[in-house]
Amino acid sequence: MRVSPRALVFRGKSLMDVEVFSKVTEEKQTDQQETSVAEESILDEAARRVREQQEKAVPHSIVSEEPLPQSRRVIVVEIAAQEWDTRLTELFKEFQHNVALEGFRKGKAPLKLLQRRFMRDAQESLAEKIVPAILRQYAETKKTSLYGTPRVLEISAEPGQAAHLKIEIEVKPEIDPKNYDNVEVEVEDVPMPPDMVDRELESLRYRNAFFEEIDRPAQADDGVVVDYKATNAKGQTVDQKTNVFVHAESQADIPEEVRQAVLGKKAGEEVEVEVTGPDGAKLKYAVNIKAVKQLRVPELDDEFAKDLGFESLAKLREVTEEQCRKRIEAEKQDRAFDAIVQKLSDSNDFEVPPSLQAQVERDLMQRDLRFMYATGRLPWQLRGQSREEYRLAIEKDANLRVKGYLLLDAIGTKENIEATPEDIDAALKARAEAEGRKPLAVRAALEKSRQWDSFVEEVRFDKIRDFILQKAKVTWVPPKQQEPQPAQ
Fold first, then answer.
1. Which domain holds residue 461?
2. pTM of structure
3. CB of 290 within 8 A of CB of 263?
4. pLDDT score of 445 more than 50
């Protein structure tokens, strides 16, 4: 379990980031694009401020507050008679202008008639319009966060009298975190596999491999470029494609019989193969082999290292080993942090907002569904669980993630941990370097997609994470031996 403020989903880190440097002309184009993005971001910000100005504060007072279980609260809001009646009259005038009642032309229905018929609907509509602004003020005043959708339970309003709205809301629970100064945990060590560097270098070789055309019959590991036409029993063409790349690892939607038929064939040859379709129908594939290509994997030598920007193979190995060690250390820190958060959650009991937990449950299930589409297996099957066991596991996982997030936020507040401008600039620069972009462009894109506040919050949570790890006492224990799996 790892905790992140953005939907409580975590960022993965790759072993080696490959930087590609553009030509001067491309850099100029990029600068122009980044300027354009920045200008759009400024316009978006201006539009947002206009919207906020339009959603001006609603004069009101909080008459009472009643706490409820599950971090819910009922508040009663009082709005002065003149304020309420004025807004209600404006709403009716707008309605009068657009409505067409039987017996009256559009816009000509008497206002008093509309008020008699539609007063309750108008009051509910007015409440729906002003409640967001009221709750925004409430959250700012109370220095809290609201979750889910508020419910207007009751509207009490008579002409000439103050209106009262009873609203049920979900709020961030008030947490006074404890026992986080000297947390002691035992965590399984993460030894670095002795062959990790070699495996990474081998993977790097294959990531830089390429196909080269060759004049010989196709072999199992070769790629073959083909044109094909599939016809049914009546001689009708049901499928036809050109320049299809056929390889054992390719994603081309082509029958396995065709893949096998091109083996042993050279460029310029043709082959016909009969295939049985999913519906049992026979299809005849006429395949023209246009090219045979051999996979060329570069040798692991100084020349290969220089192609990647390193002075020698020894230097490439040294850098790869250092990055492997960093990845192992990052995994150890993640495990330690997870164990600390688990222990803190056990010793700090509080209820989590149901809406926030429900959102995280949906996010976790969507993640599993994406994996299901890739593997063709249901999430609970992959975990070896029943459907009900899977649902309960997701519920437990979501509860722990939300609880950890809220607890860390409370610790950060108690310790006055904030993201300083220097912290934000450093994080922005690191992200820009990882993405091969300029900090201005990254910030503009985040602001345009309204993710800048989330980015700043992530920087703050990274500081809270570092604080927690520094305070904790972690004892590393040998990893448990994996039990042998029964033969399938």
1. 183-189+310-477
2. 0.70
3. no
4. yes
